[in-house]
Amino acid sequence: MTAQVDVAIVGAGFAGLAMAIALRRAGRDDFVLLERAASVGGTWRDNSYPGVACDVPAHLYGFATHPNPDWSGLYAGGDEIRSYLERVAEAEQLGDRLRLGTPMTSARWDDEGDLWVIDTPGGGIRARTLVLACGRLTEPRIPEIPGLETFPGPIFHSARWDHTADLTGRIAVVGSGASAVQLAPELARTGAVTLFQRTPAWIVPRDAHPYTDEDRERFATHPGELARLRAELYAEGEARFASRSGDATASAAAEATARAHLAAQVPDLALRALLTPDYAFGCKRVLLSDEFYPAVAAGEIALVPSALAAVHGSTLVAADGSRHEADAIVLATGFATTRQPYADLVHGEGGETLAVHWFEGMTSFGSTVVSGFPNLFILDGPNAALGHSSSVLMIEEQAAYAVRCLVARDRAGGVLRLDPAAEAAYTDEIAQAAASTPWLVGGCRNWYVDERSGRLTLLWPGTVDAFRARLARADGTEFAHVRAWT
């Protein structure tokens, strides 16, 4: 059986829900929301490891249309965010539009029908418009480590947590990024943790604080106060861009804060040296933690300043030659980011896949539309991530742009076909803005840059204000054979 809709949205995390909200607000109810899992939530459904939390202030990490006065504190835990998304889906009455347990197995542009033909295990869908809201941190990256398959105990990625595993013995944590820094201190409460650190991270104080019952009551009864708090957090985030993007004064001040944090929590000079990055502040994701350094300093986490190189049964061999015994392995090794898994499933004009189109790295116009893929929008995809503030802000801007395009398309008629020249020009804009930033010249390897081309393909190299202004300048002439509509 084949259904027909105006818009098919793939993914029911923040991006998919944002698109559904934007469509509803525009009076466009002819859409379906496809979700491969059994519930909404995206990243915050998939990641259930001990200590999982967001490092963006909670009141900025939510939809503008769905303020939440009940956040428990400055930063929200994973369960709390997942519950928030479930409440949003319920409030938006998406039940009849939401198809859970329905993965997109392929999507093909039909040149004759001017629509997308989408395959799912439950049947086909024909949609005039396709929105990919699949997320960028969805597919775990499993490192190729010789002998990993010989390990006799539990082994799993942090985003596929095994809640049945016995983690009271010797636990090896592979990785030292955001997930590892959150989960390792939690695991150390019940087990003996050894952490394999290929590269140390810049870590700044989290300084989290809970909101009191009085705070939450005030937010609920005085929406203006909640709006002012969100505005303050937004301004703080925008100001933080300077230190992440290479401004000399701001970067020096932020690095000094990180060094002072390390010195205050790790008295041992030799250990402190092993935890000190040798690359520019902001080159890799800056982490927030008040618990990781003390756990390492106290010996609760045994630090191996080297990558895991090989596994021989229960013996783990580091690149520095040291050997360590383990009963369980947790891979906190990140995700497939620059090569998005959905790209192989989407076939545009002439049958070309997104993966082929992006063979040298992701490109787009407005971080949202791609030439050769008519009536297609991608949220939270190419150059839409942030290193300084809430990605939800970017997603909301993209959803608003997509709806604006659809309204103009329907008014003018025809199909939205991005002009390849507009995509090339936008790609050049990104390259020029990123050229002197730490992400490219800061002396590190990060997941923001595509190794095939050396281009920055994940991060937006500017503020949220700048992104909003850039999309506001899009007047429809980015699409071939369409007159300006602003």
CATH superfamily of the largest domain: FAD/NAD(P)-binding domain
Q: Quick check: average pLDDT? A: 96
Query: Mind telling me the CATH class of the largest domain?
Result: Alpha Beta
Helix content: 25-40%
Radius of gyration: 23 Å
The main β sheet shows up as: 8 strands, mixed
Number of strands: 20
Proportion of β residues? 15-25%
Question: What's the tally of helices?
Answer: 14
Outline? globular
Residue stretches low in confidence (pLDDT < 50, at least 5 long) are: none
What multimeric state do the chains show?
Answer: single chain
Short recap of the structure:
This protein has helices at residues 14-25, 43-46, 78-91, 178-187, 213-221, 223-245, 248-265, 269-274, 292-297, 354-357, 391-412, 420-434, 438-441, 464-472; strands at residues 2-10, 31-34, 98-99, 106-110, 115-120, 123-132, 155-157, 170-174, 192-196, 203-204, 287-288, 301-304, 308-312, 315-318, 323-325, 328-331, 346-347, 376-378, 449-450, 455-456. The protein is an alpha/beta fold and 486 residues long.
Overview of this protein structure:
Keywords: Monooxygenase, Oxidoreductase. It comes from Microbacterium fluvii. It is an enzyme of class 1 (oxidoreductase). This protein is α/β, with parallel strands linked by helices and 486 residues long. The chain folds into two domains: 2-139 and 336-472, FAD/NAD(P)-binding domain (3-Layer(bba) Sandwich), CATH 3.50.50; 148-202 and 252-331, 3-Layer(bba) Sandwich (FAD/NAD(P)-binding domain). The protein has helices at residues 14-25, 43-46, 78-91, 178-187, 213-221, 223-245, 248-265, 269-274, 292-297, 354-357, 391-412, 420-434, 438-441, 464-472; strands spanning 2-10, 31-34, 98-99, 106-110, 115-120, 123-132, 155-157, 170-174, 192-196, 203-204, 287-288, 301-304, 308-312, 315-318, 323-325, 328-331, 346-347, 376-378, 449-450, 455-456. The strands form five sheets. Strands 1, 2, 3, 4, 5, 6, 17 and 18 form an eight-stranded mixed β-sheet that branches. A five-stranded parallel β-sheet has the order 7-16-8-9-12. β4 and β5 form a beta hairpin. The radius of gyration is 23 Å and the shape is globular.
